[in-house]
Write a structure and sequence with these properties.
The complex is a heterodimer of chains A (109) and B (193).
Chain A (H helix, E strand, L loop, with lengths): L8 E4 L4 E2 L4 H13 L4 E5 L5 E2 L1 H16 L3 E5 L3 H10 L2 H4 L5 H5 L4
Parallel strand pairs in A: 1-3, 2-4, 3-5
Helix pairs in contact in A: 1-2
Chain B lengths: L1 E10 L5 H13 L6 H20 L9 E11 L2 E9 L21 E3 H4 L1 H6 L5 H11 L5 H7 L5 H9 L2 E5 L6 E7 L5 H4 L1
Helix pairs in contact in B: 1-2, 2-7
The chains are: A alpha/beta (109), B alpha+beta (193).
Chain lengths: 109, 193
């Protein structure tokens, strides 16, 4: 557990659809979070009903980037459509799986 | 015999995606006997196919059009199919392609077979197989390992191949590409009766 870390930053999405063209926005948030030593992000996808493959790739890229710096990227509020897309691509295990015991004690809990 | 149900041509622009999705929903909505989960997977994958066709078009060619054709009936054991034709660079296959090898230009091929290796190299592996491998090796992959091995591209193709039983793609940089999604087994109770 890293007690020096601040609580996770929650990114709320106001769009129904997340496409590749929004990847740059996500990268900006990731860079800012790392710069502020808040590498734990939660992407709130409530109300989102489609995420295209380009944005899924950007999410994986962001996750790798954050993990390298001791952080994480999790998803919350995913509806049936987004959960189905994540299951089809196998990314549910990266973004929806329960946090590890260490993480559960950490800032994401 | 396969029967042309309807065809629609729209400008190659992201704004057209919802039009095509709406038509797809109508097409799939007329299929009795399919589970809601299956219909959802098909609809979402078609949306992904449309995105590839409409968004990944070459720069400066916005006046191009994408054509979507819906087929129903029985031919070669195909119950129904959706074809998406577009002038774009084609599907992104895990960052390996495009450019595609010259040998496949203008040739229709089965993506699921041709790119089987790439598909299996993505984070997703068949669930049962994964469990078997884990039990054989006595090793359970950690989330860190999944993250480390996860690809950052190629998820469009994976979505299509996981939702549809037959995914064909014809790559032609001059005349345009054609993506064909088909279900060999009948979803239509109409045809099963």
């Amino acid at each position: 557990m890293n007690e020096g870390l601040l609580p996770p930053r929650i990114l709320t999405v106001s769009r129904r659809r997340l496409r590749r063209d929004r990847a740059r926005v996500l990268r900006t948030h990731v860079d800012r979070a790392i710069g502020e030593n808040r590498p734990h992000l939660v992407l709130d996808l409530e109300g989102v009903d489609f995420v295209d493959s380009g944005f899924l790739g950007a999410m994986v890229e962001a996750l790798k980037h954050l993990r390298e710096r001791g952080g994480d990227l999790r998803i919350r509020g995913a509806g049936r459509e987004v959960r189905t897309l994540l299951a089809l691509t196998g990314l549910d295990r990266l973004f929806l799986s329960p946090p590890s015991p260490e993480a559960a004690r950490g800032p994401l809990s | 015999m396969e029967k042309l149900l309807y065809t629609v041509t729209v400008p190659c622009a992201p704004e057209s995606i919802e039009v095509l999705e709406s038509l797809t929903e109508t097409f799939l909505g007329n299929i009795p006997g399919a589970s809601p989960d299956e219909l959802l997977r098909l609809r979402l994958s078609v949306a992904e196919g449309c995105r590839n066709a409409l968004v990944q078009q070459p720069q400066g060619r916005r006046m191009n059009v994408t054509t979507m054709t819906f087929w129903g009936g029985r031919f070669n054991n195909i119950a129904q199919a959706i074809e998406i034709d577009d002038p774009g660079p084609g599907l992104e296959v895990g960052g390996h392609l495009p450019p595609y090898p010259p040998s496949i230009v203008e040739q229709a091929f089965l993506l699921a077979e041709v790119f089987d290796e790439q598909i299996l190299a993505t984070p997703e592996t068949p669930h049962n197989l994964s469990l078997t491998v884990q039990s054989l090796n006595g090793h359970r992959r950690t989330r860190d390992e999944w993250v480390r091995d996860a690809r950052t591209s190629g998820y469009g193709l994976l979505t299509l191949c996981k939702a549809w039983e037959r995914v064909e793609f014809r790559y032609d940089p001059i005349r345009g590409n054609s993506l064909r999604l088909a279900q060999p087994r009948p979803l239509l109770a109409l045809y099963a009766s």
